[in-house]
Amino acid sequence: MLFARETKGFGRLLTLASLVLISALWTSEPLSAETPEDVLFVGNSFSYYNNGLQNHYRRLLNAASTADRAPGKARLMTISGGRLPEHRGGLGEMLRAYDWDAVVLQGYSLGPIDAAMAEPFREAAREYAEWIRADGAEPVFFMTWAYLSRPEMTATLDAAYTAIGRELDARVVPVGRAFAAVREERGDIALIMDDDKHPTLAGTYLAACTFFAALTGTTPAGLDYTAGLDRTTAAYLQSVAWRTVEEYAARQ
Fold this sequence. Notes:
By secondary structure, this protein is of the alpha/beta class. It has helices spanning 10-25, 45-48, 53-64, 88-97, 118-134, 153-168, 175-185, 201-216, 231-251; strands at residues 39-43, 74-78, 102-105, 138-142, 171-173.
């Protein structure tokens, strides 16, 4: 996967020129027929900050929808500081109460990589994937990002989520990789708050764009929903999301 730092001079000028062109055109592709209509996001504060990841994801879907292809529902079920095993009761109830096309599983930020938490995370992932598939839905894993002070977490989180995704033949959305790319290329865009962990609005928007790219198979570039960010920044984050999803898929 390529996450090379942008070089000064010609390469940076090309990047800026591309973003200006994206902003100027500001058009989008229609949703594909394979896009899951009803999506449940299961997680913790990484998902519920900034008015909820699911709301930004749905607004991106709305921006891409046509009269004959309207999006379904996107809902969020979270526990503050929650670890994946703690969602057993709630997830079971949500699967019984509603029909879903995809269920996104987001663990505690250290859950897949901490020695004491990794095996309970994997056990819950296996159990939940079985439940979700038995309910006729697709399990999806949310690869989270590194703490601001610990960028080395990106590689270990990538390895852990990729491993469970391969074991369970489940899709992994590489949000953490998208965060790492922006931190390398555009350190002026703050994705993480001063608390070292939680996403800013730009971070949540990048996560939503990455989910849009992964779940629809369509680039978010050109969508007019910006979450209130300036269009140049939004266009850049849209492009990183699509690039990251394409590069991650090429590794699999």
